[in-house]
Each structure stands twice: as structure tokens, then as C-alpha cells.
User: What shape does this take?
Amino acid sequence: MKVSKNFVTYLTEKKLLIDNAINHYFSQYKFPKELCDSMKYSIVDSGKRIRPILTIATAELFDTPVDMVLPFAVAIEAIHTYTLIHDDLPAMDNDDFRRGKPTNHKVFGEAIAILAGDAMLTEAFHIMAEESINKKIPLRKAMLAINEIAFRCGVNGVVGGQVVDILSENKKINFSTLEYIHTHKTGALILASIRVGLHLSKVKKRDFDNLTKYGENIGLAFQIMDDILDVEGEFSKLGKKVGVDTEKKKNTYPSVVGLKESKEILQNLTNTAIKYLEPYGKKAQFLRDFAIYLSIRQH
Ligand code: GRG
Assistant: This one.
């Protein structure tokens, strides 16, 4: 499967839009300096920006002004960045490299890294609430979007998934537990990124259902690809160590169902996701290409 000709241009445009918005919001954080430097170190100028791109692309599909969703897109990237900082800590994955540079705690120490993650999570909700007021976003739309993120990042989402992942290390788990881990620790925030775009748009129920299905499929596909890259990827492209899952005896798709079947499942999920975009024709080309890009990415 190949992406269409203009995809890279669109992707670069969207990434730039998000990078500029992140610079704008994070430049206001100045004191305490160590905390603010630590937050900026992990979020400014790094990462593929997959989740905020999805929020913007979903909103654009339904003609919602980008300006309205941009603060939510930044908040989602801030939450994603907090999960990475905490995931890299010695108490969790104990990683030395992330996004091509030393992990946050390696540079700022554990205490500041933990607090930078806490601050990113809290500030994300502050940005969403304050900008909803500033931009006069209808109260119900704002609350639905904020609630979506809170729900999918907490016990029933990212943190729940992370806990089951940690508790499953060195254990043999069944396929449904593996699917739970992937759809929660990773899929939930990807799905939330799309559904936030929907909450802030004018959409019919069938659109909500179609895009939710698209999100569920690419969310799971994304983590399967992450598992595959841990086996087949390269440090120079990934910006983090490879082979870590095997080293830590983690349960992954390749370790549970094998590499070949993992690739087949990834392909099927991508095809299914794309099928849910059929009603939107050419207008959904970017989201179609994005699903393909996620399934062939090298980092
Ligand atoms: C609550 C103490 C506490 C910790 C939370 C929830 C959590 C720790 C971690 C989440 C689990 C996690 C990090 C899952 C991995 C998701 C994943 C594949 C991340 C990499 O995403 P990319 O490839 O990264 O989009 P970039 O760097 O491009 O943004």
C-alpha cells in the first residue's frame, strides 16, 4: 500500500502548525526554570505529532476551523509527552533514550521528570478549559471533548492499560489480555484524539460511529507496529533502543502470535480502518493515507 502524492506535503504542513502552537503555549512557562526547561525539553521540536494531527484532520473532514481544535491538539500532545516521560522512568521502562536524545530523567533527574509529567498532564486540562472560554466554544462541546480525554487517559484507558502491561511482564498472558493492554495503553489516546475532533464538530451519529471505528482500528494497529519496530527497527531511525520488549520479556504481538501474523493483523486493521472512510470519498484522502503511513512507518 502506498500513500498518495501530496501526503508528505500535507503531513509537513500539519506538523508545522502543531509545532508552532506548542511553541506558543509552552513559551509562557518560565518559572520554576528547572520544571519549565524539563517540560520544554520533552515536548518542543520532537515527536511525530501523530495524535494532534489526527485531531486536526478529523475536524477538517467536517469543516471545523482548525483554530477551534488547536488548543485541544496541543493538550493531547502534552498528555502523550507526559506518558512518555513517566514510561521512561526507572520504576517503569527505565529507558535512556527517547525521541533521539537522553530521556527526561537522565537530564533533569527523577524528581523533576516526575513533576514535569504531572505538570504536563495538569496544564493540558488548563489549556483546554481556558481556551474553550477564550474561544467561546459551546459549553457542551467543550465538556464532551475534555471528558473524552479524561476518560480515555485514566483508569479505563491509558493508565489502566499501562498497569496491566506492567503486571503482565514475565507472565504468559492470553490474547484478550494482550489486546486489552494495546487498546488501552496506546489505542485509547489515539481514539480520543479523533473523537475530540468529532465532539468539536457538527457530525451525525453515523459519522461519529464511522470515525470511532477508524480510530479503534488504527489505535491498535499503531501499537502492533510499535511492537514490530522493536523487533525489526533501527535505533538511528527510531531514536530509542530496539529489542527492549524481548529483553524485558514483555508481552507483544510478535511474542504472542509471531511476527508474520502480527504483520497480517496490522494489515487487516489498516484495511478495516480505511473501509470506514468510504462514505467520505476524496475528502478523507489524508486520513486514508495517514492509516497507511502508520502501517509502513519506520519510526
Ligand atoms: C501514571 C505514573 C504514570 C505513568 C503513566 C500511562 C503511561 C505512564 C504510559 C503509557 C504507555 C505508553 C508510553 C505507551 C506507548 C505508546 C507509544 C507507542 C508511544 C510512542 O508514540 P509515538 O511513536 O512517539 O507517537 P513520538 O515520539 O513520535 O511522539
